[in-house]
Amino acid sequence: MFFGQLACEAANFSLKRLIKEERPKGQAAMGKGYGMPSSHAQFAAFWAVYLGLFLMVRHAPRATGSGSGPRPRGLLNGGAGQGEVWQAGAGAGGGHGAAATPLGGFLERFGTSLLAMSIAAAVAWSRVYLNYHTPRQVLAGWCAGVACAIGWFVVTSVARQVGLWDWALEHPSLRLFRIRDLVLTEDPAQAGWEKWETLRVQRVQRKEL
């Protein structure tokens, strides 16, 4: 997303100098430079749309079980006996499926995407309310941001499908800085939570000995 935002900024810079439309006039007018399209509306729209596409189309975290460990008495399920095993992502029947992460389920991912769109819409509205841009400039910025988000999503999808991204990750310069790509199948928040749960269970077990 970072490089996509840079490309979006370059597009906004070029469009403003190509169109050369001034900001709103009047005593209450604010801001300097050209106003078409609104950069804030464009960047917010890019962020929200790309995040939504990523969460709803590309991101699919799965349970890894890295946080599995013995379940001490009284911690889970109201005093279950010792020897039971807690497994990340296990359902009521003990089976494994999609991880029960903050972004793991459809409703969570959809809700996060909807929240991002609401924030982006609020940012766009604020540019008109504060008289930094006209409604037309904000609408143009929003459309440009959506177009950039979809375009960058397509570019990155093709790069993954043809193996270009995997090839780049094997480059010595990226490996030197330990650049990795776990975001598609692993939820960093869930991985950290599982590690914390393992340590917590171990501390409780030591106290019971």
From TrEMBL:
One Gene Ontology cellular component annotation held by this UniProt entry: endoplasmic reticulum membrane
Annotated keywords: Endoplasmic reticulum, Hydrolase, Membrane, Transmembrane, Transmembrane helix
Main location as per UniProt: endoplasmic reticulum
Biological-process GO terms, alphabetical: lipid biosynthetic process; protein N-linked glycosylation
GO molecular function: dolichyldiphosphatase activity
Domain Phosphatidic acid phosphatase type 2/haloperoxidase, chain residue ranges per copy: 1-153
Classification via InterPro entries: PAP2/HPO (IPR000326), PAP2/HPO_sf (IPR036938)
Transmembrane segments: 40-57, 114-132, 138-159
Catalysed reactions, as listed in the record: a di-trans,poly-cis-dolichyl diphosphate + H2O = a di-trans,poly-cis-dolichyl phosphate + phosphate + H(+)
Annotated EC: 3.6.1.43
Pfam families the UniProt entry points to: PAP2 (PF01569)
Coiled-coil annotated spans: none
Membrane protein topology class: Multi-pass membrane protein
Subcellular location as annotated: Endoplasmic reticulum membrane
Keyword Hydrolase included in the entry's annotation: yes
Function: Required for efficient N-glycosylation. Necessary for maintaining optimal levels of dolichol-linked oligosaccharides. Hydrolyzes dolichyl pyrophosphate at a very high rate and dolichyl monophosphate at a much lower rate. Does not act on phosphatidate.
Protein name in UniProt: Dolichyldiphosphatase
Source organism of this protein record: Zalerion maritima
